[in-house]
Design goal:
Layout lengths: L1 H6 L26 H4 L8 H9 L4 H10 L21 H20 L3 H17 L8 H8 L5 H21 L3 H25 L3 H21 L6 H17 L3 E5 L3 E6 L2 E6 L2 E5 L2 H20 L1
Antiparallel strand pairs: 1-4, 2-3
Helix pairs in contact: 4-5, 4-9, 5-6, 5-9, 6-7, 7-8, 9-10, 9-12, 10-11, 11-12
C-alpha cells in the first residue's frame, strides 16, 4: 500500500495540505509574472480538491494494468526528453512535469533504470524552470535510480521533493501550476493506455478507458477553477473535446452487500458495489485518437 501511494508522485502530493506549516515570504525571491501568480476563484475547497485528485488514476495504476496484461515495455509510447528546452514558459514546464512524471512511473514499473535517469534529469530541468528545483535532490535520485534494489528509497526521496515543491507553490499563490502537473499526468497516462489498447485490445483496457469519464469530469472541475487565466483557456477547450466524446459512455452502478474484512489488523466494512461501463469499440478509438492528438500537441508545445 505504501509503495503504491508513493508511486503516485504528483497526483496526491501536489495537493497535500500544508495549513499547519509556517508561511514565509518567498515573493521577493524571484520575479514572477502576474499571470503565473493567478490562483483562481477558489471555487473549490481544498478538501474537495484532495478528493478529486485522489480519484484520478495514478500513472503507476495505469502502468501496472498494462504490465499485468503481459504487454511488453515500449519506449515508443514515451514523450521524448530531447526537446525539454522547448518547455519555455511556466505553463509548459508545469504540464511537462506531469507528462514526464507519468512516464517515470511507467519506466519504474518495468524497472527501466537506464532510461529513468533521462526523465529525472528532464523533471529537474523543468522544476528549476518554475523555481522549485532547489527542493529536488537530483544527485541522490540519480544515484538511487541506477540500482533496482534502491527503488523504495528512490520513491521516498521523490515524495519528499514533490511535497516541498508543492508547499512552495502554494505559499506563493501558484497552485494553478499544481493543477497543470495533474493534467499532464492524466493525459500521458491516458495516452499510454490508449496506445496499448490500439495495439493489444482487451476488456480491461476498454473498461479503464471508459471509467475515465468520471475522472475527466473531476479534472475539469479542477482546471476550470483557473479558467480566467488565459493560459488555461486552450487546455480546457482541448480537454472539453475529449469530454464531449465521453457523453456517449454510459456508467451504471449496482449496490452490493457490505462485507467485513480485516486489513492491517483492523476490521473494516467493505462495500461491494459493482460498476458497469458501456462503451463501443468505435467510440473507444475515437477517444484514443482525440487523446493522442491533444497529448502530442501538448508535448510539441
Amino acid at each position: 500500500m505504501f509503495r503504491r501511494l508513493i508511486y503516485i508522485l504528483v497526483l496526491i502530493l501536489v495537493f497535500a495540505s500544508c495549513k499547519n506549516e509556517k508561511k514565509e515570504d518567498f515573493s521577493k525571491e524571484f520575479s514572477i509574472p502576474d499571470s503565473v501568480l493567478y490562483d483562481g476563484d477558489l471555487a473549490i475547497s481544498e478538501a474537495a480538491i484532495n478528493d478529486i485528485v485522489q480519484n484520478i488514476s495514478s500513472p503507476v495504476e495505469m502502468a501496472a494494468l498494462i504490465k499485468s496484461l503481459g504487454v511488453p515495455f515500449s519506449k515508443d509510447y514515451l514523450a521524448t526528453t530531447d526537446y525539454v528546452d522547448n518547455y519555455n514558459t511556466s505553463y509548459k514546464k508545469a504540464i511537462g512535469l506531469g507528462v514526464f512524471g507519468a512516464d517515470l512511473g511507467y519506466l519504474n514499473m518495468y524497472n527501466k533504470t537506464g532510461s529513468v535517469i533521462d526523465y529525472i534529469s528532464a523533471i529537474k530541468t523543468l522544476a528549476d524552470g518554475i523555481h522549485v528545483g532547489q527542493f529536488f535532490d537530483f544527485t541522490t535520485l540519480k544515484r538511487l535510480a541506477t540500482n533496482n534494489q534502491n527503488l523504495d528509497s528512490l520513491m521516498y526521496i521523490s515524495v519528499q521533493n514533490f511535497n516541498q515543491m508543492d508547499r512552495y507553490l502554494r505559499e506563493n499563490k501558484r497552485s494553478s501550476l499544481s493543477s497543470l502537473i495533474v493534467a499532464g499526468v492524466w493525459i500521458e497516462g491516458m495516452y499510454l493506455v490508449g496506445e496499448v489498447a490500439r495495439r493489444s485490445p482487451s476488456a480491461e483496457l476498454t473498461e479503464k478507458i471508459g471509467e475515465q469519464k468520471i475522472i475527466l469530469s473531476n479534472l475539469m472541475l479542477l482546471l476550470k477553477n483557473y479558467q480566467k487565466d488565459p493560459s488555461f483557456k486552450e487546455l480546457i477547450e482541448d480537454f472539453e473535446e475529449i469530454q464531449s466524446l465521453y457523453k456517449n459512455v454510459i456508467i451504471t452502478y449496482e449496490k452490493g452487500e457490505p462485507e467485513a474484512v480485516e486489513e492491517d489488523g483492523m476490521l473494516i466494512i467493505k462495500q461491494n458495489d459493482k460498476q458497469f461501463i458501456e462503451i463501443s469499440d468505435e467510440l473507444m478509438f475515437k477517444i484514443i485518437n482525440k487523446t493522442a492528438a491533444i497529448r502530442n500537441k501538448i508535448i510539441q508545445l
